[in-house]
Write a structure and sequence with these properties.
Elements lengths: L2 H18 L17 H8 L7 H11 L3 H5 L2
Length: about 70
């Protein structure tokens, strides 16, 4: 699997978990400590963003899972 495929799979996993928890993309952009801009989350979920560990951490906090769970695809 190449990097682009890996990013797409991670994005799909984030989107799936977010949907299962009935969270909108806007919920991640609440200006709190773990805020992630909507556009950034859209790009990650579409597999178009090579995101940072910091962003992955923030997303995992919002989803209430460990960052490693998002990377295991």
């Amino acid at each position: 699997m190449d990097l682009n495929d890996y990013l797409v799979r991670i994005g799909q996993k984030i989107k799936k978990i977010r949907a299962e928890r009935a969270l909108t993309q806007e919920c991640f952009d609440d200006l709190g400590e773990n805020s992630v801009p909507v556009r950034t989350l859209q790009e990650i979920e579409a597999g178009k963003s090579n995101f940072t560990i910091k962003t992955l951490y923030k997303i995992s906090k919002k989803l209430k899972i460990k960052p490693k769970d998002l990377l295991d695809v």
